[in-house]
Amino acid sequence: MELLGYYNYWVFAVVLCLGLYTVITRNNLIKKLLGLSIFQSAVFLLYITMDKVDGGTAPIIQKGVSDPIFSNPLPQVLILTAIVVGVSTTALGLAIVVRIKESYGSIEEDDILARDSEL
Amino acid sequence: MTILFAVFLLSLLVIIAVAIIRAENLFVALMLTTIFSLLMATNFFILDAADVALTEAAIGAGITTVIFLGALALTSEHEKPFVAVPWLALPVVAVTAALLIFASFDNPRLGDPEAPIHQHVVPWYLEQTPKLVDIPNVVTAILGSFRAFDTLGEVFVIFAACIGVLFLLSARKPSETRCTAPASVGLSQHLIPKVAGRFILPFIILFGFYVQFHGDFGPGGGFQAGAIVATGLILFALLEGEERALRAFPRWIMMAMAAGGALLYALVGVAGIAMGGKFLDYSVLSSDPIAGQHLGILLIEAGVGITVCGSLLLIFHAFAARESF
């Protein structure tokens, strides 16, 4: 049971590395971006894991509840904004991918490199 | 019991991540990513982060999927079967994972109240929120008041990313962009999406406004509300087609929203200086410092919501209007 307390960290490590593996090995640019968003989600999971307090609840103050235990609100604030920024930057990446497709006719990295070396 | 449920959900997360990597059809991979996001949102909720769960569900599962779909429509949904995986990749990734797992034993276990992260500044936030800001949701108090400067930066990052997408995708003249025949527009021939979509659309928008204005008291706020309202308007565009959506909600309104929201946020900060306080100090906005805090948070949350909604809509329409190559 004691070891289960670390399970979140292990899932973080595995999911992070799965994302990293996708970015390294896949040639397709959209697949790379999907891998990047998996990587990003893993980091979110790490932060949110740290906010949990035993017996705690979401940090919303209620009148008439004496000595409430709250989970840590700070990582939540950081990750909340990071998620929205994440989607904007992903959209920027996708826009670049669309332009690459229009210029090179492909979104596979090896095709693009091959066309670059022809020039 | 909860911990077993959490372990189940987390294990599912790993399985889905593996499935995303193995899927050769990008459309399938994208749908799996949506499931991944929803699972992640559930995990956040179990970990007491209700605000973050709401954001992840609205953005990760909703908006991200739509934007990826827009990009897939402009590229191709099939991944070229790969020939050779670099042999070094697997060992490098495996060693990284092993090191991270090894390092995890130095972390405080999940839920440890003695963990360093709970000792430093957070007790102060929890103690002072009722006295200084007096709104129930501490997350909103930190986001909107204590760390408002941070949030201002995030809003401008979103605005900048939106401008970047517009620069990249509207390089050609608007007349050259796609103009689909009215008959094939949207999902209007499909009965079930049309009826169901029209039915839930007003409720999505209403829920968005609820999340916006209830953010002081419960989970919610500008980031989530902007995304939810944008989801509703994107659903309208999917149902009725690009052209009618732009007639109902023209592009200049979205641009005004994206810029105006960020401007409103910054102006609230400047108003603080003008009225004798510091940048983004809301206490001086009203004769009563607490009322000033309430007013300031209301205004900046509105600014955040407007910018997020406008930017996400602009990004969606930039992809949707791009001519298929």
Biggest β-sheet strands, sense, barrel of chain B: none
H/E order of the elements of chain A? HHHH
Structural class assignment of chain A:
mainly alpha
Largest interface: A-B, 84 and 104 residues
User: Which runs of chain A of at least 5 residues are low in confidence (pLDDT < 50)?
Assistant: none
Radius of gyration of chain B equals: 23 Å
Helix content of chain A: over 70%
List the helices and strands of chain B in order.
HHHHHHHHHHHH
Question: How many H/I helical runs of chain B?
Answer: 12
Mean model confidence by pLDDT of chain A? 90
User: Which structural category fits the helices and strands of chain B?
Assistant: mainly alpha
Through-space gap between termini of chain A: 61 Å
Number of strands of chain B: 0
Notes on the structure:
The complex is a heterodimer of chains A (119) and B (325). Chain A is elongated, with a radius of gyration of 20 Å. Chain A contains four helices and no strands. Chain A has a domain of 73 residues. Chain A starts with 6 loop residues before the first helix and ends with a helix. The longest helix of chain A is centred in the last third of the chain and has 32 residues. Chain A is mostly helical and 119 residues long. Chain B has 325 residues and is mostly helical. Chain B folds into two domains: 80 residues; 205 residues, no CATH class. In chain B, helix 6 crosses helix 7 and helix 9 crosses helix 10. The longest helix of chain B has 33 residues. About 2% of the residues of chain B have low confidence. The chains are: A mainly alpha (119), B mainly alpha (325).
